[in-house]
Amino acid sequence: MTARLIDGKAAALSLREQVRVAAGTFAQAAGRRPGLATVLVGEDPASAVYVRSKIKATGEAGLESFHHKLDDATSEEDLLSLVADLNADERVDGILVQLPLPTQIDAAKVIDAISPDKDVDGFHALNAGRLATGLDALVPCTPLGCLKLLRAELGDLSGKNAVVIGRSNIVGKPMAMLLIGESATVTVAHSRTADLPGVVRQADIVVAAVGRPEMVKADWIKPGATVIDVGINRVLTDDGKGRLVGDVAFSEVSQVAGAITPVPGGVGPMTIACLLRNTLVAAHRRAGLTVPQEL
Ligand SMILES: Nc1nc2c(c(=O)[nH]1)N[C@@H](CN(C=O)c1ccc(C(=O)N[C@@H](CCC(=O)O)C(=O)O)cc1)CN2
What we know:
Layout: E1 4-5, H1 8-30, E2 35-41, H2 45-60, E3 64-70, H3 76-88, E4 94-97, H4 107-113, H5 125-132, H6 141-154, E5 161-165, H7 172-181, E6 185-189, H8 196-200, E7 205-208, E8 226-229, E9 233-235, E10 243-245, H9 250-253, E11 259-260, H10 267-287
Helix pairs in contact: 1-10, 2-10, 6-7, 6-10
The site of ligand LMY7XDAE has 17 residues, from strand 4, helix 6 and helix 10.
Function: Catalyzes the oxidation of 5,10-methylenetetrahydrofolate to 5,10-methenyltetrahydrofolate and then the hydrolysis of 5,10-methenyltetrahydrofolate to 10-formyltetrahydrofolate.
Domain Tetrahydrofolate dehydrogenase/cyclohydrolase catalytic: 6-121
Subunit structure: Homodimer.
C-alpha cells in the first residue's frame, strides 16, 4: 500500500474529547447539560447498533440522553406526536430519528416536523437551504465528518477538483455544498454519469457515496488523489461470515491514491462524533451562547 491511511477513529475520538470539554463549559454557563433525544422505531438490527453507539457516545461526552424506543407498528401520527413533544421539551437540544423508518411512516414528513433548531441530523429543508446559501446551518453529520477529515489531511481545499459520487440528500448534495463553501471546484457524479471513470480520474478529491460495494477501481483514480469512502456495505465471504467493505476497492485503490479512508474505521466513526458536535452547537444557539470556534 502506498496511500496514507486517514484514521477516522482517531479523528473522531479527538472531536469527541473536544465536545466533552466544551459540554462541561456549556453546563457551567447554562446551568444544564446539552440534551440529545434519540428515536428508534422498529427492530432493524443495524439501526439498533448505531443508536446504541450514539447513546453511549452521548453519555461519554457528558451530554444528557433521552431515548425513545417505539415498536415496529408505530403509526406516523404517534411518531409525529412524539416529535412535537420533543420540539417543546426545553431539555432537548437535538432530536435524532434513526433512519430508515418502517414503510407506514413517511420519513420526509417526520424530518419536516423536527424543529430546524433541533435538527442535529441537518436533514430539514431549512437547514439544507441555509447550507446551500452559505448561512449558518446544522449540517448532516456524515458529510461534515468527511469535510473534517479532508481539512485535516489537505489543509486548504480551495481550487481542488473534487468529485462527489452520489447525489443523495443525506450525503452527496450536502457534501457538494460543503466543498463549494471551501472554494473547491465540485462535480456531482452518479450512476448515470457518462464516462464515470473518466470524470473521477480528473479529481484531486474523490468522495464515494454510491452504496455499491467496491465500485470505484484503481484505474479511476488520479495518482496521489485523496479518497474518502462513505460506503458501508456488508458482503458475504467464502467462509459465510461476511465483512464490511466500502464503495471503493480499497486494496487496489490504496496503491494509487495519496490518502484514503478505510472501511470500517474511516468516515463511520466521524458520523457519530459530528452528531455530538451538532448537538452542542444547537445547545449553544438555543441558549444564546457563542459556539466554540474549535468545533
Ligand atoms: N438519522 C440518521 N439515520 C442514519 C444515519 C444518520 O446520520 N442519521 N446514518 C446511517 C447510519 N449511521 C448513523 O446513524 C452510522 C453508520 C455507520 C457508523 C460507523 O461507525 N460504522 C463503522 C462500522 C460499524 C460496523 O461494524 O457495522 C465504521 O465505518 O467504522 C456510524 C453511524 C443510516 N441512518
